[in-house]
Amino acid sequence: MSKHFPFTLSGLSDEAGPSLDQQIRAHVELGWEEIELRSVNGVPFYRWDDATFDDVRKRLASAGLRVSAVASCIANWHRPITAPFYYDVEELKVLSERMQALSARYVRVMSYPNDGLSEDEWRDRVMERMHLLTEEARTSGIVLLHENCSGWGGASAENTLYLLKEINNPALRLLFDSGNGISYRYDAYQFLQRVWPYVEHVHIKDGVLQHHKAMYTSPGKGESKVKECVEWLMDHQYQGILAIEPHLHLIPHLNKQGDENDLIDSYITYGRQLEKLVTQILSNREGERAFQ
């Protein structure tokens, strides 16, 4: 179904279940040809042994699935700015080699939570590390996608734009997640409008803030303005990927995971709901043009 849309649909497959069988099954049932890898059986992509990686690669190819992007732990919530930089450098080396084997272009990164540093020192250390990581990515022929999430660069649209403009390298671009504004207390739609020129990948997530906690919902049913974000992407000729990240039963950074059957069923339902939302937007636009 996604092939009729102005962009391609995909998803962070481990939200369909921990096993590769579940992840493949969900995408095949949805009829999607793209898949975004983060973990299998709870083990992050970069920590797979060579045998596991080879098995995953072969099984994805056999199922006709292309890997659009992979998730990393680089600069994320587990690695504050005071953590050894060595971890990120070594992970990027592993990722680069495996991404070449998968013909994958994009790897998701963040930009280091603070750990007691002043704002200026935090920023300066982040910039130094991100310069080095971006140059390594450029040399390897891959692109770092900075998500509007944990870290200095995700704290505001101003920080995001500063990061991109100062580094000024095509190997660093943005992953826009429509649901992250709920957790980080900003309007994601306004954020998208500010950073749009650098966006090359999109995650679809929605939710509401209840009792100061993010509660995740079906796409278009929360307060993340998912419909408005998708319309904005259409209006600005975005032709990349919309990847679902439901967070209904799996929230990695909170170590939350639901029943395996709930995972796959809700993942497929979420994908169908996104397809329906996009179809409705397209249909409404066709109707509007018919009356002009």
From TrEMBL:
GO molecular function, one term: isomerase activity
UniProt domain Xylose isomerase-like TIM barrel: residue ranges: 27-247
Keyword Isomerase: yes
Lineage: Bacteria, Bacillati, Bacillota, Bacilli, Bacillales
Organism: Halalkalibacter alkalisediminis
Domain of life of the native organism: Bacteria
Protein name: Sugar phosphate isomerase/epimerase family protein
Keyword Isomerase found: yes
InterPro entries documented for this protein: IolE/XylAMocC-like, Xyl_isomerase-like_sf, Xyl_isomerase-like_TIM-brl
Keywords in alphabetical order: Isomerase
